[in-house]
Amino acid sequence: MANLFARFLKDESGATAIEYGLLAALIALGIIAGATTIGSQIGATFTTIGDDLTAANQ
After folding, report:
1. Where are the transmembrane segments (predicted)?
2. pTM summary value
């Protein structure tokens, strides 16, 4: 039983999987934040272009 417990404490495969999961979540969070910011800026740019085209047509 002591041998089984010692092997369990030395096993780091679960810790590695958790680390990779946390890293993937952090990368996904960064991508989402960046896409949101860029999306807002692109939306504002298209709104400005649309307003300018509307003003040029009148």
Report:
1. 20-39
2. 0.56
SS3 11: coil
φ/ψ (deg, to 5) at 11 = -70, 120
Tokens of 56: 């040029």
Residues in the chain where the model's pLDDT stays below 70: none
3-state secondary structure (DSSP) of residue 26? helix
Pairwise CA distance, residues 50 & 33, whole Å: 26
- Between CA 58 and CA 53 the distance in angstroms is 9
